[in-house]
Backbone:
């Protein structure tokens, strides 16, 4: 993901808004993966399965905070927030207050990603009329 953002920063003035879905504990599920289990919808296998919605929100906040710190440390101008568990709704809410040139969807590999299986990137592009870049993470 950093490479994609770096390309945009090098091309000219850029800023980014990171939206992390605030998924309830009931909507997490664990899928088998090589070498262990991957809790969904997290972007890393070390979060575990939350016991409550409050814990799920705390995990989402940790992911957001980590991403904001990492991107800021890399010199990227970035803001962010937690959004709806429904990514289309979350994006719609952010677009109500801001304008963007592009939407970047970062997701898990296809075998784990509910977003890719639901064709979210194409849904986003059709609904919001903005170019969409999909970044498939390694974990």
Residues:
């Amino acid at each position: 993901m950093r490479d994609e953002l770096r390309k945009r920063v090098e091309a000219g003035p850029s800023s980014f808004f990171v939206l992390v879905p605030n998924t309830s504990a009931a909507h997490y599920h664990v899928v088998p993966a090589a070498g262990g289990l991957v809790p969904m919808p997290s972007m890393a296998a070390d979060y575990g399965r939350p016991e409550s919605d409050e814990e799920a929100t705390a995990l989402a906040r940790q992911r957001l905070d980590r991403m904001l710190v990492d991107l800021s440390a890399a010199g990227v101008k970035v803001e962010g927030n937690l959004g709806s568990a429904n990514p289309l709704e979350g994006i719609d809410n952010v677009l109500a207050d801001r304008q963007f040139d592009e939407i970047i969807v970062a997701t898990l590999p296809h075998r784990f990603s509910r977003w890719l299986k639901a064709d979210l990137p194409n849904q986003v592009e059709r609904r919001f009329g903005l170019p969409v870049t999909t970044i498939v993470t390694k974990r």
Remarks:
- The longest helix spans residues 53-73.
- The beta strands are 16-21, 29-33, 36-40, 78-83, 103-107, 132-136.
